[in-house]
Amino acid sequence: MDINTITSTKNEYIKEISKLKTDYSEKYILEGVHTIEEALKYGVIESILFTNKNTIKLSEYGDAIKKYLITEEVAQKISAVKTNQGVFAVCKIIEKEIDLSSNVLVLDDVQDPGNMGTLIRSAKAFGFNSIVAGERSVGFFNPKVVRSTQANHFSMSLVKKNLEQMIKFLKANEYLIVGTFLNQDSKKTITSNTKFKDKKIALILGNEGNGIDIEYLESIDVNYVIKMSEEVESLNVAIAGSIIMSSIYKI
Amino acid sequence: MDINTITSTKNEYIKEISKLKTDYSEKYILEGVHTIEEALKYGVIESILFTNKNTIKLSEYGDAIKKYLITEEVAQKISAVKTNQGVFAVCKIIEKEIDLSSNVLVLDDVQDPGNMGTLIRSAKAFGFNSIVAGERSVGFFNPKVVRSTQANHFSMSLVKKNLEQMIKFLKANEYLIVGTFLNQDSKKTITSNTKFKDKKIALILGNEGNGIDIEYLESIDVNYVIKMSEEVESLNVAIAGSIIMSSIYKI
Predict the structure, then answer these.
(1) Above 0.90 for ipTM, yes or no?
(2) Residue of chain B with shortest Cα separation from A153
(3) Considering only CB atoms, which chain A residues are within 8 Å of B243?
(4) Which of A236, A244, A250 to probe by mutation at the B interface, max B CB count within 10 Å?
């Protein structure tokens, strides 16, 4: 097994990797044993970097994956967390088409990486195989997003697209477009999951502060409102989305 | 209206307030207009501190609440976020008894402040008026927790207690004790909300990585398992808890 050693934070490859924390358009960085073991199954790993506290079995990572022994100082440079686990993987982003046989989650301007990551994890749990995010949303491969997914993003179709076009496309493909507008006294409002039976669902969630952009109100077929106390203005967006996806999964 | 001015980060009161970011056992700090307006309704505010970018109506905050004009430098010293809104309140923690007429959320070692805050918000939305957290859980008044509640914690009974004793106490008060153990092939396992009808529920959620401590397995009456894809190991704890609370609220 070929293993290179990197001891300097000024090494060119390390400089390139460090940039992935903020520029994750083509590659991104993974941290931690569990996530990297999961990534191996999907053939997305370009290289592995590890310190002497690493616990993954390097022999399982074939010759096509480059291996680098790094110092703790270098690990701290590339890590996005305070206490790193001593193992990192640089992964390629492989774009997948939307799975038109499955439900789709549509995210209009979700900003918080924790919310985005949690939504990816919940979407997978509840059979929403594709997520389309509008251009203003936080990136799918932001390190904090990836951490929150708990290694559940590899099988998903994660697509950034213009939402207006996307909603038209989903409508044309016979999706029921489900909105989550608050305070919309609309005839479209429903509070139970009965309308979802035998339908392909495209569920739209909005921004943490402002909800879904009002321009999409016309496009929705139904507006789902979660029953809750009137004393609470709204739920966290990842919570609301997961409750609805769960209620669709159950039927 | 009496307004004092503080221009130094070394002012004794500012030093005291800065400590509340990590020691929130008796008082805690609130940031932001919306949250502070909400706090006013509950009579918990001891003082208001504001910079010249403040937008709250000071006249609504009576004479019993001390008012301090502070500099941006002082604001940055007491703020827990990068971009502060220019207004802070120091609040008293008022302990409330558990509401024994309502459902109770029991948190065994929830560590992430975002999860704790989101659970407080969801608990209020779904009529769980009390939350009991074990001693190892993150504090209710940690600044990040308070931020995630979105001003929904004021009306709640938030109690830190020994959970073993608490579960006995809830049992004695005729609560149905609901666990959320994963991978427990137990006769107690249920996957629908039918058992919850006309019962007072105590729902136990566990640690982000390890779930509920196994020592509580004996104490539970039923173990609720959320239906989901087998490809996903688990849900985020705030998501799982909110889905179950929502399903209980609906019946």
Answers:
(1) yes
(2) B232
(3) 242-243, 246
(4) A236
Q: Identify the bridge partners of residue B131 per DSSP, sorted by sequence position.
A: B105, B158
Domain coordinates in residue numbering, chain A? 4-92, 104-250
Neighbouring residues of B19: CB distance < 8 A, sequence distance ≥ 6: none
pLDDT in tens, B52-81: 998 889 999 999 999 999 999 999 999 988
Answer yes or no: do B236 and A122 touch at CB < 8 A: yes
Domain boundaries A4-92, corresponding CATH code: 3.30.1330.30
Residue numbers in A near B122 (CB within 8 A): 235-236, 239
pLDDT of B82 = 87
**Rounded Cα distance, A223 and A192, in Å:** 11
pTM for the model: 0.94
Tokens of B86: 């220019």
Search chain B and give the residue with CA nearest A230: B125
What CATH number belongs to A104-250? 3.40.1280.10
Pair of tokens at residue A43: 């053939």
Residue type, A65: I
User: Mind telling me how many Å the CA of B1 is from chain A's nearest CA?
Assistant: 32
pLDDT tens digit sequence for B12-58: 999 999 999 999 999 999 999 999 999 999 999 999 999 999 888 99
